[in-house]
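Re: [help] complex structure
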Amino acid sequence: MKINKLIWVRLITFSFFLTTACYACSDDSDTPLDTPTEEPGNGMDDIDTSGVTLKEAIGDKFLFGAAINPWQLDINSSKEENRREGEVVLKHFNALVAESVMKWRSIHPDKEKYTFEDADAIVKFAEENGMTVIGHTLVWHTALPDWVWKDVSTGKDLSAEQLKENMRSHINTVVSRYKGRIKGWDVVNEAFNDDGTYRESPFYRILGKEYIPLAYQYAHEADPDAELYYNDFELYHSTKCRAVLQLIGELKAKGLPITAIGMQGHMWMNNPTVEMYENTILAFKSAGVKVMVTEWDMSVANGQNIYPNGLPKDVEAKWTQRMIDFFKLFLKYKDVVTRVSTWGVSDSHSWLNEKCTDYPLLFDRQQQPKPVVEMMIRAALADK
Ligand code: XIL
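Output below.
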């Protein structure tokens, strides 16, 4: 097979950066870095935060987003809770991600049927309110209807050609519809296992790893100006981080744009450490891509119903400290972090409540800001 000179140059350049970047991937042997914490007398106490919202304080350091469902944008709703959710979204956030309604099963449930109403409503709301929209997500093993990869009459996998055609027409139809209106897409979501191997999704089983560059190619053809992201969770596992670095190189070698890595920010009280997350940001930075902190939330309950009626003060204090520590990390890397998005708005509607009562977000069950919000505003205003 003849590989042209340009591709060789790209491959050589990439192997050099992969060697450098992998040193930065986090794992247990990494040297811990200093974790900034809120110290009294550091000058931040003097800042007047009254009336300042999160998005105003953050300004143009990075976009500040939330995952939402259409009902959370109904600021004229007769239901007080819906109204309050909408008011928080409008007041504090400037970027929207659909929590569910742009996923394959929602937007394209049957081969011949697209259901765009909910996605359209989000894009319209964002445009009317000067907000950015991020598309989530085009190719994911979850929320995937069977017809995409299976002959429903025989139960057998479709051929590689049939699956490619389903991917191409889905990506083309969805991305083209929002061309110029959606800033960027999570093109592929969660393709790797923690050990860096490819997840055995129907896409991988039928097409092998080439399904990923194909997805980027189809998205780029549909909207050449859209940013294209790869999004995954727990990228601080060094094996997984390396797999994504490798993927970045392969996409670049093929001339496909990969703008940023979405580092899902699903966190717990002890994991990850700020250092692990920092090292992972650094690894992607040295690979020449931007980073987005996507899907940020911090579970206190970790799937156990241990706090059904509220949080003990010490747990709440630890949660607040961890959240502000991470937020300061994001500020520190504002040269490479282009967006931070929480996965939901208030505790009352976090996806984590599907398992138990949890407290992962910035706004409480009455949609009131938690103490960390003011700390974040103060930190963002102090950050020059
Ligand atoms: C979740 C939604 O929040 C839930 O409501 C839904 O039941 C399942 O999907 N990683 C992702 C998100 O990329 O799309 C997932 O969202 C959470 C994990």
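The chain has one domain: 5-27+36-382.
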